[in-house]
Write a sequence for this structure.
DNA sequence: CGACGATGTTACCCGAGGTAACACCCCCGG
DNA sequence: CCGGGGGTGTTACCTCGGGTAACATCGTCG
């Protein structure tokens, strides 16, 4: 029996533990769940990072493919964007624990530290960047804007989606609308609020 | 001598180490930098989280206040938004290592896990939420939109700012423009790209 | 049969967070 | 003068998690 099937079994075990204990599950725990001991895990995955990467890769491939497909859908742009947003939110809604993995930046990462976006998220960001670059006419600044927006949109959806998933303030559809509205410049279009009479009052905002 | 001054000195030392070694600096290292040993740190801060919190609080208060001020600036809305963006980017540009702290969600956080935004960022998000709520007329959905947007904008600026800080693709001013443009609906306004002839070609995208 | 490549084991190392127990120093009140 | 209490600090230890070394086993292929 080649290595591959064993790897799958180990990943399955790791998966169950992560589902149960969250992304902080120890290697010992994972090994125990698989009915074996640590060194085997290390033989297969090198280090914890390798295991986690394999695990995330496995789970993200689906979501990533779905997003890729959504980005290529032949729709009006607004509909396409909503479709992508909905795809992402549906994905994280379906498997919250997995989602935790995606967003969990590796804690100990000396040297190459500092990416606020975990690898899986970065792939999504690149996907968006590519889509914007190829589909939207942005003039000379095309490359810069596409890349900045790719990251920005990803981060936006990450943070908003996280909040939505945790506190469930509304339906998924409404959340999609809220985010699409933001991207559609509704913040710019809305009128000023009729300031109810306060030029410079000495009240400090409630903390 | 009361406890407070000592605390400050210890925080200063911790600060230097974080600047030098990043947010993964060990308690031992921090103690050594302060010329003392671990237990003292624990006496003052309880645990690592306490130290980090104290440290972030200290540094964020400035940035947070600056952002609060920027949000209250009496400008055209677009200018105000740009001002806020610039304030944030300037802040993280000035002290990159500190910024790492802000964005570093506490790794071991059993139970209440899952906030993609670190506490400091969440404060910023709340600030934005409040500003939107009080300044922009969004109709019946006001509360939902403001809250979703607060998180979303914060996440967007976090991710984009992180990328900008690491790869420095352009000046700060241009980055501010790029993000403001995104928030201003330029994604919606731009024309479709003149698809250079490809209905459904069997080429797979470069990986 | 022997060797190789997989399986698995126990036992250990290291570093980091965290704590216990002890010692010093100084000031303030009886 | 003396005796605390509250600050300073120490050494030595515990626990737990990532990671490794060394050893044993089983099945297959030449």
């Amino acid at each position: 029996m080649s290595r591959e099937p064993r790897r799958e079994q180990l990943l399955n075990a790791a998966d169950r533990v992560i589902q149960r204990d969250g992304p902080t599950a120890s290697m010992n725990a994972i090994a125990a769940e698989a009915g074996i001991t640590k060194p085997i895990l290390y033989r297969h995955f090198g280090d914890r990072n390798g295991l986690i990467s394999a695990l995330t890769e496995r789970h993200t491939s689906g979501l990533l493919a779905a997003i890729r497909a959504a980005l290529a859908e032949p729709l009006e742009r607004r509909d396409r964007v909503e479709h992508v947003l909905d795809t992402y939110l549906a994905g994280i809604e379906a498997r919250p624990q997995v989602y935790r993995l995606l967003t969990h930046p590796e804690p100990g990462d000396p040297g190459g530290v500092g990416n606020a976006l975990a690898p899986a998220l970065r792939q999504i960001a690149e996907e968006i960047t590519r889509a914007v670059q190829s589909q939207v006419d942005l003039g000379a600044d095309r490359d810069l804007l596409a890349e900045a927006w790719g990251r920005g949109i990803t981060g936006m959806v990450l943070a908003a989606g996280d909040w939505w998933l945790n506190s469930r303030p509304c339906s998924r559809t409404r959340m999609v609308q809220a985010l699409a509205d933001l991207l559609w410049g509704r913040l710019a279009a809305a009128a000023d609020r009729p300031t109810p009479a306060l030029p410079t009052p000495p009240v400090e905002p409630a903390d």
